[in-house]
Amino acid sequence: MGIRRRFFAAAALACALALPASTTNALTTPSAARPFQLRVPVLTYHRIAPRTEIGNSLPGLVLSPQIFESHMRALQKNGWRTVTAATLADHIQRGVPLPKKTMVITIDDGRDDGYTYALPILQRLGFVATFYVITGRIGRARYLTVPQLQTMALAGMEIANHTLSHTGNNKNGTYAYYLDQVRVAQEQLTEWLGAPPVTFAYPFGLHPKNLIRAVSNTGLRLAFTTKSGHVYAARNALTAPRMGIRASLTPRQVVSLLNGLR
Asked: CA–CA distance from 102 to each of 3, 12, 80 (Å)?
């Protein structure tokens, strides 16, 4: 069976196993007095790698595989479950609640340690994550390859758009410039994986108006900044918040952080 056929078969299976809209057990139910919104922590990670492999990466963006696994195990033990950002986008759009203690794990930039270290940890725990990749770097040294992306997608991970070249801090960027950054990445991911991504992460969290417009006109439904927060609704779907998770946080602190959200 070809890689694209297997990819579509896996996607169909995921849809078949999705929670029905009538699920009522411990749902994150919105108030009838305000527009539909969900309160879901979306955790941001970057590199999951040993110290010997981080090179010149900013230390604050790197967690060892051991620390990452300790965070994930503590959350699982405390009853937290995962969905992808695409699933969150779907629930926002359809106005369908998610079960309480549902979280989204996102890992930015598309480094190969996402495949080598993060993926096996997630699979051992039965978790899924969304990987935001810089498509122009795919296949370069220390970055993911197309076959790795395909394997991760078949394993239930979401592979999503983080622009062609990680540009977002060009304040004078034209709409045409940003549209090219978003659209080319979208086309590449569609070619590699057989379906277009539906979510996006802004490089550096920066989201000038022309970039937001490009994201909107490319058909993306949920786009993340680096603003801190966990409330999602149609009104902030293209400027959505996330929660950065530092290596200095202990597993107990991570659990307390998420359990304390209201």
From this structure: 30, 22, 6
